[in-house]
Amino acid sequence: MKVTLAMGNGGEENLELIERIQKFFHNDYLQKAEDATPLDGIEKPVMTTDSFTISPLFFNGGDIGKLSIAGSCNDLAMMGGRPLFLTFGLIVEEGFELKMLDKILNSMAKELKINGAKVVAGDTKVVPKGSVDGVFINISAIGERQASLSQRNIEEGDVLLVSRDIATHGAAIFAAREGIELDNQIQSDCASLWPVIEELMENVDIKAARDATRGGVAAVLNEWARARGLTMEIDEESIPVSEPVKGICEILGFEPLVLANEGTFVAAVSSKEASRALEILKKHNPNAAIIGKVGTQYPKKAILKSPWGTKRFLDMPSGEILPRIC
Amino acid sequence: MKVTLAMGNGGEENLELIERIQKFFHNDYLQKAEDATPLDGIEKPVMTTDSFTISPLFFNGGDIGKLSIAGSCNDLAMMGGRPLFLTFGLIVEEGFELKMLDKILNSMAKELKINGAKVVAGDTKVVPKGSVDGVFINISAIGERQASLSQRNIEEGDVLLVSRDIATHGAAIFAAREGIELDNQIQSDCASLWPVIEELMENVDIKAARDATRGGVAAVLNEWARARGLTMEIDEESIPVSEPVKGICEILGFEPLVLANEGTFVAAVSSKEASRALEILKKHNPNAAIIGKVGTQYPKKAILKSPWGTKRFLDMPSGEILPRIC
Questions:
Q1: CB A301: neighbour CB atoms within 10 A?
Q2: CA of B313, closest CA in chain A: separation in Å?
Q3: CATH code, domain carrying A20
Q4: Which of B147, B182, B192, B294 could connect to B70 by a Cys-Cys bridge, CB 3.0–4.6 Å?
Q5: Which CATH number fits the domain that encloses residue A197?
Q6: If you measure CA to CA, which chain B residue comes closest to A261?
Q7: Among B145, B169, B189, where does a domain finish?
Q8: pLDDT digits over A222-258, tens only?
Q9: Angle between helices B274-284 and B194-203 in degrees, nearest 10
């Protein structure tokens, strides 16, 4: 059965589609929803929004549904926010298979549970064939801040870590699109980060965290360097990259540092907390690593240090990196 | 100058596009935004989300930018919520004119002021030509509830009002698409309703309000009837419809009651408050009218009474009413 235009037009068939969707997200808040949904009070809210236009919709390691919930909740988690309430905006192309839509909605529901968050409002638009490519999803999310993680806290001497080996999401999507066959298929890192961030916050005085999505780790390091007028000094050899990802990067001529991740973050902690932070990160992924520290030599720059003592600037990525990666 | 794929990919050009967009929405919250934006505490939040896929993007009486902010804030207002914080998700087609984008953003900024609301987070995705038709916008909004307007408050004997003449948005979009030339061009009712709702709430014990968007007034009345197990009894002759809209409806064979509005609402008040409510509504639009009352004769139904005493059911709209109306 396919999605029809009539299902998106505010009438009887629209109510049926809404009911079909709502059963994936059942909760007490949705019961009270009319034009908008009354929620419980929030003392320290933190809010984010993200649209997802990824192609293909289903990929090794996830799909647009999982990606949309994980990605939005991750943005809250990076600010120390426990994910609470989410809204979704689905834009569906006429003729899209309802069975595929169910699969996407099911992935969303599963990922919500991992975050302990609830969908409290949704909107579904069906547009004529050709007006959109398949399904686009917008998620807005609001959470309660448990600690004030922020790039503003980053200081000289802080240690930088990554939570796992990098660039798998970008490499997986690339390989899928280009039809590259590998012995070890690369799986996207697509995952919710709230559980590991929560454990980190409870045990370590973590200063800042950022998930390395579009633009990859290079974008995070450059943004932090610019925001603080400091230098992000990275030991190139310490950056964890798996062999299959290295292979893809060589074929395509890309640096892993600019490829997108969807469940990998960079963290800044004071030097005395670094080994404890690494220990916790390694419990969640053995490839977590300390990758460098915060210096002052080249203000607003990120630099890569080679094992032979040479240095080069790691620039902010530019150009057409990869459209529809998320 | 046109939007390029490079502007949507997390790198240098992406930052430039973000800066271009942010200057329309400048505020203190955005200054503190990183992956997510810290907000002030909200005691009685109410939240909504809506995607806008309207075609054409610019129409008589508004554009997708004005529509998106007004439409989302209206959903909060209908629940008694003062609009506070909004997020937007822009999905832009590669090659879209930046000048047109500026025009849309400017309309958004103007409408935000009317609502006293602020954009606190945004996301912009650029997708390859053909993956989306022009620009789609998602808005999520959170407000603070000033009174508990809800369909749950509706009781037998309550009086039903509309805030102005109906069906102008649907008729205007129809006329524009079909290329129908009229002596009096129809202007969409697209407008923010918070100011009139606020005045109503301050002066009248208003029970429920709902803006009659997709599915029109017919959808609102049927939803209320079903939610309360009551009858919405409408005097057909009392429904305000302008002559040009009547003309369009005759040409196209539509009932004004099923056509979309974007700045028109139905309100339910106790009978003793009805004349006071009408007085306030008329200050904002002289075509506001009392259109009927709440009865019990046909549970879960809306009925239309003719001036000759005959009755017919006003059904929930169904079928392909009009895609991309909002």
A1: 19
A2: 15
A3: 3.30.1330.10
A4: B192
A5: 3.90.650.10
A6: B10
A7: B145
A8: 999 999 999 999 999 999 999 999 999 998 888 999 9
A9: 150
pLDDT for the residue numbered A317? 87
DSSP codes of every residue in B95-123: T-BHHHHHHHHHHHHHHHHHHT-EEEEEE
Please answer whether residues A97 and A137 qualify as being in contact, where contact means their C-beta atoms are separated by less than 8 angstroms.
no
ipTM > 0.90 (yes/no)? yes
The CA distance from A7 to A19, in Å, is 11
- Chain B residues within an 8 Å CB radius of A319: 6, 9, 11, 13
Co-location of A306 and A241 in the same domain: yes
Q: How far is CA B40 from CA A28, A48, A150, B30, in A?
A: 25, 14, 17, 13
Q: Assess if residue A320 is contained within a domain.
A: no
Q: In this structure, are A82 and A160 located in the same domain? A: no
A186 and A248 share one domain? yes
Q: Do residue B170 and residue B297 come from a single domain?
A: yes
Closest by CA to B296, choosing from B252, B240, B230, is B230
Say if residue B183's pLDDT is above 70: no
Record: contact B78-A131, CB cut-off 8 A: no
Lowest mean pLDDT among A71-75, A110-114, A124-128: A124-128
Task: Say which of B50, B131, B323 has its CB closest to residue A5.
Answer: B323
Q: How many domains does chain A have?
A: 2
Is residue B27 in a domain? Answer: yes
End-to-end Cα spacing for chain B: 27
Residues of B in contact with A143 (CB under 8 A): 36
Residue B37's domain comprises 5-145
Which of A89, A112, A145 is the endpoint of a domain?
A145
The answer to whether the CB atoms of A151 and B34 lie below 8 A apart is yes
pLDDT in tens, B78-123: 999 999 999 999 999 999 999 999 999 999 999 999 999 999 999 9
Q: Are residues B185 and B135 in the same domain?
A: no
Using the Cα atoms of residue A20, residue A26, residue A28 and residue A30 in order, give the sign of their dihedral.
Answer: negative
For residues B197 and B253, state if they share a domain.
yes
CB atoms under 10 Å from CB of B305, counted, come to 16
Q: Do A89 and B89 touch (CB under 8 A)?
A: yes
Residues A162 and A309 in one domain: yes
For residue A183, pLDDT beyond 70: no
pLDDT, average across residues B153-177:
95
Identify the pLDDT of residue A320: 64
| B56 prior amide bond cis, ω within 30 | yes
Question: Is there a domain that residue A186 lies in?
Answer: yes
Query: Which residues from B are below 8 Å from A320, CB to CB?
Result: 4-6, 9
By three-state DSSP, how is residue A221 classified?
Answer: helix
Asked if residue A174 and residue A64 are part of one domain, the reply reads no
* pTM of the predicted structure, to 2 decimals: 0.95
Query: Given the structure tokens 């053909």, which residue do they identify?
Result: B130
Domain for residue B324, yes or no?
A: no
Interface test with B, best of A5, A9, A18, A115 (most B CBs within 10 A): A9
Taking all residues of chain B, what is their mean pLDDT, rounded to a whole number?
A: 95
